[in-house]
Amino acid sequence: MTNLSLSLGLIALGANLPSTTGSASVTLHAAISTLHNEKNITITALSCFWKTPAVPHGSGPDFVNATAAIATNLRSDEVLERLHKIEADFGRDRSTGRWSARVLDLDLIAFDDQIAPNHATLEHWMALSQNDQQIHTPSELILPHPRMQDRGFVLAPLAQIAPLWRHPLTGLSVIEMLGNLAPEATSGMQPLADGFRASVP
């Protein structure tokens, strides 16, 4: 990419079912390679892979999770469109419901310090109870991801590559959000010997 006006995107990756490519770990490796080879997207940092119990507990096989930082001159909605296409290419079926077992999950967690679509909408989705989160799905891109501050499987890997990134609404850093989690949010998580290449501010 030659455009000097690059944005930082933070992406969470997860899988707990095998795809036609292979196991969950193999699928994540392949998806990362695919993402890195996308035009106008470059992966600049990658966490290690983490073994993570499914949420809610007992709802499926353990996940393999990771996070990646990208540099891009695309808009956030264009990045999301690329992520959804990669998911589909690996066989992601969105008809199985939220928080279900899946072959690949790619979430755009944050994009620079962008708040989208606006402060009030982000605050609304952040305030939803866990039960309501399972029932309701936003019809538009919400940034930062409204549940990132609650998810150990996002924050633990993210702390490896962007520990000082600050939430543009709350002002909390990734490290601070991770420290605020209840112990059960990271219970059973184990880092695996994959990934982790570099960190970003």
Descriptive account of the structure:
With 201 residues, the protein is an alpha+beta fold. Helices cover 29% and strands 21% of the residues. The chain has helices at residues 24-36, 76-89, 119-126, 130-135, 152-161, 174-180, and strands spanning 7-15, 41-46, 48-52, 63-72, 105-111, 190-195. Strands 1, 2, 3, 4, 5 and 6 form a 6-stranded antiparallel β-sheet that branches.
Distance between the termini: 20 Å
Structure classification: alpha+beta
- Specify the biggest β-sheet: 6 strands, antiparallel
Total strands: 6
Q: How large is the count of helical segments?
A: 6
- Rough outline: globular
Radius of gyration: 16 Å
Percentage of residues assigned to helices: 25-40%
Poorly predicted regions are none
Strand content: 15-25%
